[in-house]
């Protein structure tokens, strides 16, 4: 896939005048591809990035090459928070991010990622693929985003460099990195640890140098970032299932025809099955590699004390969010 950048409107208009001056027709101009950019934090071989590439492939194929989406992995266009802001203002066209930082733009996303909310992965996908899931995607529109689709990111668990975590008491005093999200900070603090918001790309060196003691994430992220090298204790408590989301800039989408907008939205939805399968395969590989490395892994069989510590977070939700939580739990 060739690399490029989105062409500013002024340059396009300048190009149009030159083409007509050289005797070319409007049909000739329509052959010029629309080039859009998608920002991705993870590396090129990571399952979410592979999902991005599948999305881009479907768009190019279904538009007969008229629309090309260039994927920029490895945070080439910036870390999550900065990229989200650029998407909001149309400087970047698409991004794949965790839903956690988007709660700053749509409070409803806090309900979607409450700790110990889902019975299992199947329960979460029933929610996301329901009318309720579509409502969440649509809730971003007033903030300048078009929610396109969901990607899998497994279940998040805790890892650290100090000691095994087998009970709530083991969290006391640990400095745990969290996403830049008030809910995630509240989760960690409710367990007795010190929440430390930090960009994802800084976590390895921060653990290595003792700035923080650990973080919380899924198997593939723990493996692909090599965090397992500096934080050998991993407790599988699966406190949250925080899906990934692909969003578009409303500014970008509004520049496209209704037909092209529908094409992009359908391609995003259709890329989900590919990404979910890629996630499952990579998750198995990551788990096997970490176990082979000799990391100390503890599977939490009884999380009742962990759940009890979360009750203040649920009590603090607004009545509207509590109703959403109930609706999520009621989906069978």
Automatic annotation (TrEMBL):
Q: Where is the signal peptide?
A: 1-21
Q: Which GO terms describe its cellular component?
A: outer membrane-bounded periplasmic space
Among its keywords, does the record have Signal?
A: yes
The record's keywords, sorted A to Z, are: Receptor, Signal
PANTHER family in the record: DICARBOXYLATE-BINDING PERIPLASMIC PROTEIN (PTHR33376:SF2), PTHR33376
Which Gene3D superfamilies does this one have? Answer: Bacterial extracellular solute-binding protein, family 7
Biological process terms in GO annotation: transmembrane transport
Keyword Signal in the entry? The reply is yes
Question: What's a single GO MF annotation on this record?
Answer: carbohydrate binding
Protein's name in the database: Tripartite ATP-independent transporter DctP family solute receptor
